[in-house]
Each structure stands twice: as structure tokens, then as C-alpha cells.
Amino acid sequence: MVQLVGSLRKEVAESLSTCRVLVVGAGGIGCELLKNLVLTGFKNIEVIDLDIIDVSNLNRQFLFQKKHVGKSKAQVAKESVLQFCPTANITAYHDSIMNPDYNVEFFRNFMLVMNALDNRAARNHVNRMCLAADIPLIESGTAGYLGQVTVIKKGLTECYECQPKPTQKTFPGCTIRNTPSEPIHCIVWAKYLFNQLFGEEDADQEVSPDTADPEASWNPAETEARAMASETDGDIKRVSTKEWARSTGYDPAKLFNKLFKDDIMYLLTMDKLWKKRKAPLPLDWHQLESQGRPQGEVKAVGLKDQQVLGVWGYCQLFQHSIETLRSELQEKGDGAELVWDKDDAPALDFVTAAANLRMYIFSMTMKSRFDIKSMAGNIIPAIATTNAIIAGLIVMEGLKVVSGELESCRTIFLNKHPNLRKKLLVPCILDPPCANCYVCASRPEVTVKLNVLKTTVLALQDRILKERFGMVAPDVNIEDGKGTILISSEEGETDANNGKFLSDFGIRNGSRLQSDDFLQDYTLLINVLHAEDLEKDVEFEVVGDAPDKAPPPPSNQEDASSIANGNKDSAQPSTSNAAAEVDDVMIVESEGEEEEEASSSSAAAVPTSGTKRKHLDDETGEASVKRPRTNQSHESADAEDDDDDDDIIALD
Amino acid sequence: MIDMIAKEDPIISEEEAAQYDRQIRLWGLDAQKRLRGSRVLLVGLGGLGAEVAKNLILAGVKGLTMLDHEKVSQESCRAQFLVPVTAQGENRAQASLERAQYLNPMVEVRAQAERAEDQPDDFFLQFDAVCLTCCSRDLMVRVDQLCSKHNIKVFCGNVYGYYGYMFSDLGPEYNYVEEKPKMVKPSGDTNDGPKAKKAKVDPNETTMVKKTASFCSLKEALEVDWTTEKAKAGLKRTPVDYFLLHVLLKFRTDKGRDPAPQSSGEDARLLRQIRDDVLESMGLNRELLSDDFVSYCFSEMAPVCAVVGGVLGQEVVKALSQRDAPHKNIFFFDGRKGNGVVDYFGPQ
């Protein structure tokens, strides 16, 4: 009988007390993880989180209490843990893991890194740092009842970026501006409107009717004529929305009439759009006022926020929120901009009102503030138990790592219901690294299809290198024999290049760009494939990405992050809570899943690529084909949905 | 008809709505209200008990009563996070009370320093659900029989080193609902395409479907007859964890405790012996359960408590809210393999 310390062999227990581990994130998974680590015997723990505590965290982040709201998560987590384990040696950092202070040397201090994150940018970054430092990484994610844990070790397993992950779903401009068919389109429109009126104006977030919509034209010649007309003549687009609004003093009635009456009437003149669609119905403020019923008549069911008001109610909400936001802007002074935040009441009120009015116009069932908050804010429902389970599994894997038993590490999926093999927790053998992974392969290379005449250096840096390829501070030079520097990570050095097009530097079809992120110790060679036939709203395509069943082009990447995050630059740490409730969780999949249409879901984050992966079931060695889930909170995607009949039936 | 928990319909305050926001968005307001009206008894505040307490308190039940007769030992500080390190020698339930209450002031948390065995039947009947950890087989069978008669939901669970289980008895006729998406049939006229629909149907609309499930008693679940042809045929697909559970339950019956590191040598011998006896009495081959397990079932491993406590906690939440299909009827976790299975044991 081996010598035990608690449940563990003596040697393992001793390793635990001396090794140093890093926990990235002190939220839902992080709190549970810290607790498990100290109780298991890990003594030296460092935890980092940039966020502060919010009241909505308290249903699961049990290290925090009401009195801690507003304080640093990492800091309070540390203090709470020390309460029940005073001998633990914990260092807390209220900071972003993407801060260059946390370089490869920093990561090398640890025997193990465990992610407890909620966004892809940070996961990509930590993935690269751990590859660079050659430290094992345990990656995990949860959403609702589902969760997943996996182990990443350079050279032995797939890295986080070996398999392409589904990108944030975005919608074409004309759907948002002209022909919305689902509530989410109206919500996105309303968020754009918020930015146009009160925030940072963005050319990719237009709200006015799109006269150049190809669908509006009866023939190609007309499309061209429309496109040219909208660019040249004094159209609706010419005057910036914000300028116009300011000129009216942000008068709610005037704004209302333009957006919900005049613009709609304009859309109606584009009659081809309405040949096969129900036409929108312009609104008249005074008519609605006289028809409006007092709210008191309707009996409330559910939370206050879950009530769906009548259209007049949303007119009033539109008015009141504009008045509030207008004052906020005034208070902030000249050139002030507001940032949309789901937890900012007037901002959410505005989006609720504007989106609902638009839904009404386009004959959609209006939504409550509660539901709109979910969709606009990309809220992923979360509970304590799922996080507790996943955090328990993380430590189980961690013990294997620390004991040097990497070959027994697994990816484990947590299902909502047991699968056909009765498994609620499904361990799967880890896959070896992908030979052509653009991150962990020995000399990673990609081919990017873009238009060198229309792509700016700034777009290359922000949309392609940062957003798409997860670099934080890229340095780019052209392989032109002269090593011409295109982008420097040093602040200001290459700003002059930003507005220029790639072709201005002699970049053309077949050119190669060497892109480095020194912090991540990552070099990516980009082969340029020049194309002039990319779809509308598509800036670039990465060649070799697994094709979708019905591939929506990865349009406007910046769009994606601002819809999802409410925060434009996803590479930068956010100081507000807004960006914290973000896009994704690891792909959580289970066996035997029904194939699903990539329907637009209540969250704007919807996987768009249907990558098939084979995960070998640990015990049976059977391969099971997995599909990414679409909407996590709707359990339609559950394994074993053998219910063709929705009658009352006994389970067995 | 879904049977309502016979309580007044509790109102969810603004404060609760804000705190429970992320879970209301998952399981709905109705479920949250039912939780809000439920009282739960938790027996045993070891590692697993602490996890279940945390999960139920965070979920927002009306009241949680923690009952334990054990004292805080040096082990306890390693096992669970509710007892302060200074509380050695105190009663485990009482020592856990303060931190448990801090988890969520909106829940009525109570502690009772007593033995579950000593409680009269009446005591158990004041609860909507009863959760038994660190209990002997006999006690669990007795409480299960009593509670099931009175429509009280019963859960049992324990963690032994790398292994853990949880059992549910929701009664012979358990009614619940499942949320299913409303199927939007494609329009019959293919010429028009989807955009020709007059009214826009929200693709995310869902509908609540009523269902019923039937559970057997713990006694029946444990007394499966493995000598029948049918049982023998099903043996291959049966998790061996079931037999391990029998061994560990027998150990507790014989020794009044679970295997302990302090006496690991002796306990190991006894475990192997019990394994032989148990399997023989079932008419099964002793090789069904290899010697291996013996090294790995000592003490409560914190991460295993977290996993089992998470599953168990969620089953209690589901049962109290009568929403979503319950696991039927035993969940087994094997921490060495990372395997978690649910299987049914009892009469067909």
C-alpha cells in the first residue's frame, strides 16, 4: 500500500506543495478552480484578472459577496481563499494577461498554466505564450449546462489554434439597413444607431437605407447606376448621422420621423425588395400617440424587464432614453463619445426602443428588454454547478500533468444529458498537433485572399493580424529582398503607412509578408493572393479555412467584434464590464448530434463553420463525428434528442 | 398536470433578479420561483456536502438545513472550504454555518449538530428535498423509504478518493417540463421562399413539453438480482462502479466510517475482502472488480467533490424546479479516467 497524503501518493503531494501554477481569470471557472487547487494541496498560485466584480457574478463566483461589487476580482478572490486556507501562497494581479510584462520568461516560472477565460483573444494569446515557453496549458470553457476541458502541450497535442474556430457571425450590410428579417438584425441596427448618434461613428455601421443594395436593382446596369449615385450625389449618406442629429438638437420627434418614417418610406420606393417580402410599415408619431394605451391595463407576468410594451410604450422609451443620453453627452463636453454597455440603463433602453420600433415596422414580434439585453449584450447564461464540475476536471487533469502523466491527459466534454453510451462526462484522447497549424507548426504559413488595391496597412494590422490571427503587437516586413518594414509594433513608428494601400508598397499577387509578434514569440508568413472578386462586405479570406455547409463570408471582422463585445478593439483589455461578457466558449460538442441549420440565434455569436472533427472515445476507441453547437442555451442541440414525439411519455 | 409545489407564489425582488440574472436566463423565472420556495435538508458537511451546500445556496433556495454530528478534524480543513481553520473540534455543520450564509444572505441557512439517525420521521417531512452524504446504507434506505412516500425528493451521494456517486429517487411519478424549440415548418410553396411568409415567426421560439419519469427506491436500486439471465446479459454494459459502491457501502456498515489514510494498510485488506464477499454473494466473479481500486478510494478528493457536488447540486435544482430531464438514477464518477456515467438500477 503506497503512502498517502489524503488521497494522493506522497511524491505527488510533495510536488504540489512546491510547484508554481498560474490561473488566468478569476471569474466563474476561476473562483471554483482556485478553491479546488488550494484544497488539493497546491501551495503557490498566481491569479490574474483584469475585471471587477459585478452583482450578476454573485450567483456563481462564490468567492465574492455583495460588499465586494466594484473591486478587483483577482484581489478579492485571493483574500477569500486565504480565509479558508491561510497557508496558501497566492499572488493576485489586477491586469490583462496580454500586457507585455507577462512575457515568455514570466510564463516559464510556472509548471502549469490554467485558463479560466471568457474570450478568444486572450485564449489565443495564452496559447502562444505557453507554446513559446513550452509550459503545459489546461484550457476550458462553459456555457449554460455545457462545458469542456482539454490539455495543450507543445509538440504532444493540438494547440488551441490548430483547429479553426467558428468566427463570430456577422450580417450583410443590406440586411441590417434594408431588409431585416429577424429580431437580431434590428438589434444590430439599433446598436449601430447608438454609435452613430452618441458613440464613435463607424463607416461600417451605417443605419440609413443602402441605395447600392444589389437586390434593389432590376438589372446589373441599374446596380451600377445606384452604386455610383450613392457615392456621388448629395444622398442620405452624405451628411453624417451624428452631425444631422446634433443639428436638430437630438430632437426625439425629428429623429423618430427620419428613422422610422422617412427612411422607411424611402425603402418602400426600392420596390423590388418588397416583391417577395412583406413591406415595412412607416410609423407616425402622432398617430401612435393617439392609439397608445396606458400601460396599467396589462397584467405583468414575470420580471419587470420581461414585459413587452406596446409600440407606443417603445416610442416613449425612445424619447426618454434619447433625452438622457443627450444630457450625458452634453455633460461630457465637446467631441464626447459614449460607449455602448449593456449594463448602462439608458444605453440599453435606447437599443430596446429602437430595435423594437424597427421590429414593429418590419412585422416582427417585439421583444422584452430582458431578451434584448441577452442578444445585444451577448450574455451567456451561467450557473455555479457547471463551473464547479469543469473546475474539478481541470484539477484532475492538472494532477496528471504535475505527476508527469501527460499521456493519460484527456479532453473531457460535459453534456447536459447522458449520451447513447450513458456518458455525462466524455473523456477523449488528445489529438496530436496539426501539421499545418498556422500557430504551432514549425514554420507557419497562410495564404490570404485580398484586394491589394483596396486593403490598407491599418486594415492588415487590425483586421487581419490582430483580429483574425490573434497577434497583439505585430511587426511586419515584406519579403521583397529589401525587408521593407510595413508595420512596426513601436508606437507611432509606422503610423504614416496606416492609410496607404498595400499596393502602394509594391505588394501584389504572390507577395510574402513576414509578420512577427515578439511577445508571443510567433512568426507567421503570409502569402498574398490578390483578388478583385471578393463578395460585398468581405475584406479578406483565409485560404484553406474549412468550408461551411453554407459559407457566409467572414465579412467585416471589426463589425463582428463590436457587435459581440461592444468594444471595438478586442485585443485591448477593457476596463468596463461591457467586454467581459463576451463571445465564446470552447466548442462544446457531443456525440450523435443532429445536424443543424446555422440559424441566427439569440446570441450574436454563432459558429459559422461546420468543421468535422473526430474525437476518439476513450474507452471504446470509436470515432464520433462532432459538430459545433449553435446556440448553447437552447438545448435542442443535445445529444440523444430522440424525441420525435413531444407527447407526455414516461422516460422508460 | 404538473404538480405545483404547494407554496404561495414567491415574488422575485429586484435584488434577486439582479443577482440571479445569469441563471434566470438559463432556466427561466418560473424555475427560479420554485427554487425560491423550496426547503432542503443536507446531511453531512464533508467535502461533498460543502460543495452541495454552496451550489444550493447560490441557486437561491428558500432554506438549507445542514445537519452533521461529526466534528471538524484536521482532515476537514483540507476537505472543505466552509470551515475556518480555527474550528477544529467544533461541530462540522455549525462551523460551516457562517461562511455558508455569506454565500447568499437571501437564503435561510441553518445548522444542526445532531445525528441523522436520531431524527424522528417528522423531522424529514418538513423539507421538499433531502440530500444525504456520509450516511450509512441503512440510514439512506430508511430515509428514502420515508420521504418517497411523502413526495419528498431524495438524493444520496458520497466521494471516496477518486470515486464518487449520486443517486436520485424522485418518486414513482415525477412530473417535469422540458423546453423544446418550436419547429417552424418550411412553407409548402417553394416558389415564394421563406421570405414570403406573412408573419415573421421568431426562430427562437420555444415550447414547454410536459413529461413524466418514474424512479425506484434506493433499496430496489441496490438489490438488483444479478443471477438472472437478463441481468447477466446486461453485465457487460454495466459500470463496475456499481459494484464498487456496494463494497464501499459495506465498508461503512462494518467500520462506521469510510476508508481512511491513517489506517490505509488495514483498510486496504478489508476492502479486498469485502470485494470478494460482496461479489460472491451476488453470484458474480471477483475479477469483475480488480484490486486496483483499493489504492484510490481513500479520503475525499476536493476536485472529485466538486464534480460530484456539481452534478448532485444540479439534480436537486432540476427536481425542485421540475424542469429538464433528471438523471435516472445513479451517476458514477471515476476521477482516474475522467468518466462520468448515468445508469439505471432497479426493476424494469
Automatic annotation (TrEMBL), chain B:
GO MF term list: SUMO activating enzyme activity
SUPFAM superfamilies per record: Activating enzymes of the ubiquitin-like proteins
Endpoints of the signal sequence: none
A Pfam cross-reference name: ThiF
GO biological process: definitive hemopoiesis; hematopoietic stem cell homeostasis; protein sumoylation
Record domain THIF-type NAD/FAD binding fold: where: 20-339
Record keywords: Nucleus, Ubl conjugation pathway
Key word DNA damage present: no
Highest taxon, organism lineage: Eukaryota
Cellular location(s): Nucleus
InterPro entries named in the record: ThiF/MoeB/HesA (IPR045886), ThiF_NAD_FAD-bd (IPR000594), Ubiquitin-activating_enz (IPR035985), UBQ/SUMO-activ_enz_E1-like (IPR000011)
Keyword Lipoprotein assigned: no
GO CC terms, sorted: cytoplasm; SUMO activating enzyme complex
Pathway noted in the entry: Protein modification; protein sumoylation
Main location: nucleus
Family label: Belongs to the ubiquitin-activating E1 family.
Subunit structure: Heterodimer of SAE1 and UBA2/SAE2. The heterodimer corresponds to the two domains that are encoded on a single polypeptide chain in ubiquitin-activating enzyme E1. Interacts with UBE2I.
PANTHER family xref list: SUMO-ACTIVATING ENZYME SUBUNIT 1 (PTHR10953:SF162), UBIQUITIN-ACTIVATING ENZYME E1 (PTHR10953)
Protein name as catalogued: SUMO-activating enzyme subunit 1
Species whose genome carries this gene: Gadus morhua (Atlantic cod)
